[in-house]
């Protein structure tokens, strides 16, 4: 198992380097850099002024060198600008660089400075990621147990009225996008149109003090969308397991139906849903963009939109790195869990 994990980890590192390099290449295309220069300097800057601005800040260096500096495996640039000022990647803002370290990239915990929020990228990502983490936690608390129960009950009674009813509910929730269900929930439960002002249509106050009133609607909006997919996968897996030969043998031996389900069928039925559940984490991290924007909840998805819309290169790179790491880590956990749940899979 240890060798299996080490191999997966090596693949993760290689994949992360490839993906982050692609994102770094796309964000450092010259039109993006030109837009950055004009937003930081003057929108009326001519081509020569733009080139001088970028050259004084190391943006025109070869791409592999810039990528190595951003990672922190190459020393940061130190450039004597045309205005006579010395600029360095590792210089603290507003200082002359005295005592500055040579390396100051991602590996050293230096994510750069946000041109939109005027703050350190690391603190912005940490704050927004924690807010989305709270949202993800409560979504998982509601979504996973409910979906598993619905799927198991439907799979145990394949073809029955209960199965058809639960399957219809699951398909309906999965087929309804979050921006549709979210708008419906706001209109019905938080506006005066229907007279049901049970919840708040905005989750802005939930960032400081989450309560049932201001946090339930965004949580249930996300949970309903993912719940149907997990329930359908669980139902299909459970229905397949219940027709297996060992289940029939257990029935013929007189084992009670409850013991058959809990001790024999459930573990094997959870193999496929477990993989689906683990895939929900990266989806939740980046897929909550619509819900966070709709409910004015300024989490990780919201900051991703702000970084992309405002050409905030450093912040966009940091958000991309976090997204890549979350996807790769959840895949690793999924592989390990899949092997644990199905001992027939060899890891040699």
């Amino acid at each position: 198992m240890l060798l299996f994990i080490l191999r997966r980890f090596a693949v993760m590192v290689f994949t992360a380097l490839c993906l982050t390099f692609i994102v770094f290449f796309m964000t450092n295309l010259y039109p993006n850099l030109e837009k950055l220069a004009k937003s930081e300097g003057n929108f009326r800057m001519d081509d020569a002024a733009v080139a001088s601005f970028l050259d004084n800040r190391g943006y025109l260096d070869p791409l592999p060198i810039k990528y190595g500096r951003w990672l922190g495996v190459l020393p940061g640039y130190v450039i004597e600008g045309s205005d006579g000022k010395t600029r360095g990647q590792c210089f603290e803002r507003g200082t002359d660089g005295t005592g500055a370290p040579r390396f100051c990239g991602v590996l050293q915990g230096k994510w750069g400075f946000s041109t939109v929020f005027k703050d350190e990228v690391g603190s912005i990502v940490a704050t927004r990621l924690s807010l989305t983490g709270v949202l993800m936690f409560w979504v998982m608390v509601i979504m996973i147990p409910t979906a598993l129960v619905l799927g198991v009950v439907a799979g145990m009674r394949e073809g029955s009225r209960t199965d058809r009813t639960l399957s219809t509910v699951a398909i309906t929730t999965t087929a309804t996008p979050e921006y549709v269900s979210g708008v419906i929930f706001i209109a019905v439960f938080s506006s005066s149109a229907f007279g049901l002002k049970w919840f708040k249509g905005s989750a802005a106050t939930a960032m400081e003090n989450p309560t049932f009133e201001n946090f339930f609607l965004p949580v249930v909006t996300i949970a309903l969308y993912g719940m149907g997919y997990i329930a359908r996968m669980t139902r299909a897996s459970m229905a397949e397991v219940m027709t297996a030969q060992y289940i029939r043998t257990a029935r013929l031996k007189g084992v009670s139906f409850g013991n058959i389900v809990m001790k024999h069928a459930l573990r094997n039925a959870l193999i496929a849903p477990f993989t689906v559940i683990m895939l929900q984490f990266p989806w939740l991290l980046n897929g909550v963009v619509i819900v966070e924007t709709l409910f004015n909840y300024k989490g990780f998805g919201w900051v991703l939109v702000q970084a992309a819309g405002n050409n905030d290169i450093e912040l966009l790179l940091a958000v991309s790195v976090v997204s890549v790491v979350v996807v790769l880590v959840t895949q690793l956990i999924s592989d390990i869990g899949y092997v644990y749940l199905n001992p027939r899979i060899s890891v040699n």
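The first helix runs from residue 2 to 27. Residues 2-108 form one domain.
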